[in-house]
Structure to design on (207 residues):
């Protein structure tokens, strides 16, 4: 039983690691872009204007997820796909500014509720910003409206799978190391070095 458990754990450790390696690579590379990127924001090109839109005054009074759900059919009508990051309301002008993001592209929809028109501008954000976007999303901000697009729901699921998979790799790796007696001394040294480094970082950040 013990030998079979070891073999199954070893094989799962290998195959799960191979499956997760592309996702881990995305998160790892995106960290470098997130920390060291100096790419500035480029101005969006002039947008197209769509008129005679079926909007109501109620759209301006809504907030949070209700407002996102109400504006989604309008975005579909305009051919705008992606994650609504937030909705900025300008009460005096009766306008809504809606940034819609997909990895590598940002579309801004400025909705004029009085004239029932929308100005749509689109700009490419590049691969680096796409990786940063995936690394930070869905994230802890604006949780009441987050994950309002199909691609973000898929990405959240994949991020969860990656997290649970890494936990499995960690525990199974410790188990496989503990079984191999010849590697215990080296493993103890590496575990100790990792623990000391982690505690040192925590201490430096908290003081």
């Amino acid at each position: 039983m013990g030998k079979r458990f070891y073999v199954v754990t070893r094989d799962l450790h290998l195959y799960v690691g191979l499956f997760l390696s592309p996702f881990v690579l995305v998160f790892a590379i995106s960290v470098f872009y997130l920390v060291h990127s100096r790419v500035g924001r480029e101005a969006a090109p002039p947008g197209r204007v769509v008129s005679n839109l079926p909007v109501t005054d109620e759209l301006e009074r809504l907030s949070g997820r209700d407002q996102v759900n109400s504006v989604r059919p309008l975005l579909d009508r305009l051919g705008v796909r992606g994650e609504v990051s937030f909705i900025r309301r300008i009460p005096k002008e009766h306008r809504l500014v809606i940034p819609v993001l997909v990895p590598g592209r940002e579309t801004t929809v400025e909705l004029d509720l009085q004239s029932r028109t929308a100005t749509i501008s689109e700009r490419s954000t590049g691969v680096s910003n796409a990786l940063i976007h995936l690394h930070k999303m869905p994230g802890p901000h604006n949780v009441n409206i987050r994950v309002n697009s199909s691609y973000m729901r898929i990405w959240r699921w994949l991020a969860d799978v990656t997290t649970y998979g890494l936990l499995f790799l960690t525990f199974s790796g410790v188990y496989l190391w503990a079984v191999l007696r010849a590697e215990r001394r080296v493993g103890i040294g590496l575990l100790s070095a990792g623990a000391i480094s982690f505690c040192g970082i925590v201490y430096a950040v908290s003081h």
The first strand starts at residue 48 and ends at 50. The beta strands are 48-50, 83-84, 88-90, 95-102, 105-112, 117-124. The CA atoms of residues 82 and 151 lie 7 Å apart.
